[in-house]
Amino acid sequence: MLRSVxxxxxxxxxxxxxxxxxxxxWWAMALAAFLVRGGIxxxxxxxxxxxxxxxxxxxxxxxxxxxxxGTPTPAGMLLAVAVVTMVxxxxxxxxxxxxxxxxxxxxxxxxxxxxxxxxxPVPVSSGRAFGMRLLAHLPTLLALSYALVRIVLVSYQQFxxxxxxxxxxxxxxxxxxPDAILAVTVAWLAGEVVGGLAVxxxxxxxxxxxxxxxxxxxxxxxxxxxxxxxTTAVVVGVAVPFALAIGRAWDHLRxxxxxGVEAPQLTAALVVLVCTWVLGLVVLGAALALRATAWTAEVxxx
Length: 302
Hints:
Order of helices and strands: HHHHHHHHHHH
Distance between the termini: 15 Å
Number of domains: 1
Low-confidence stretches: none
Number of strands: 0
Helix content: over 70%
Number of helices: 11
C-alpha cells in the first residue's frame, strides 16, 4: 500500500543517484527497455543514411498509385494485410517486452536498501503496464493528428504557391510548423513520464485509472516538473554527445573504406567505432536507469 514519505526533492534525487550508481544491472534493464520501445532507431540514426524526401516519394509512389488509383489484386491486398499485421504484431511485442523490463526495474528499485519509497511492490503484468503506457500516450496521438493535418496543409500550400522556390520544400514546411513539432515533442515526453509513473503507482497498489490520473497530476506539480527537467536534461546531455561521437567515428570508418587505407588504420577506426558505441550505450543506460529510479523514488514522496 502506498504511503507518503516526507523527504526533500534533493534528498530523493541523491538517493536515486546513489542507488543507480551502485546497481549497474539496472543500467542494462533500463537500456533494454529503451531500445525495444523504439530507442534502437535513435541509436542507429548516426550511422544509417535516411532516405531523402524525394527518394522516399519515388520509392513509395508506385505502390500508392496502384493501391488507390488502380484495381487492387487479391494477392496485393493479402500482402498489404500481412505487412500491416506483422508491423502491428512487432510493435505490440516490443511494447510488451519494454514493459516487462520496466516492471522488473520498478520492483528492483522499490526493494532497494538505498531507497525508502514507502511501499512494497505488488505484481503488475506486462500487458497491464503496456496498456497504461498506451493510455498515457493518448495526448501524443492527438498531437500527432494535429501535426499531420498542419503538415499536409502547409505542404499543399508550398507545392501550389511556394513562398521561396529556391529553398528546399522540406525546409519550407518544417520552418512553418514549429507549433506542430513542439506539440508532438512535449506530448511524447509527457506521455513517457506519465506512463512510467503509472506503472510505478500500479506497482504500489493503485488501480489503473487512479494510477494514470495521479501520474498526470504528479507531473504537473513543482516536484514532478523538477524531476522531469533534471532527468530529461541528464538523458539528453548523454544522448546528444553519444550520437555526435558515433556519427564522427562512423564518418572516419566510412571514409577509410572508400579510400582504401592500410589495414592498421582501418582496424583502428573500427575499434574506435565499436568502443565509442559500447561506452556510449553504457553511459546512456546509466542515465536511463537514473531517470527510472528517480521516478520510482518520487512516487511515495510528498
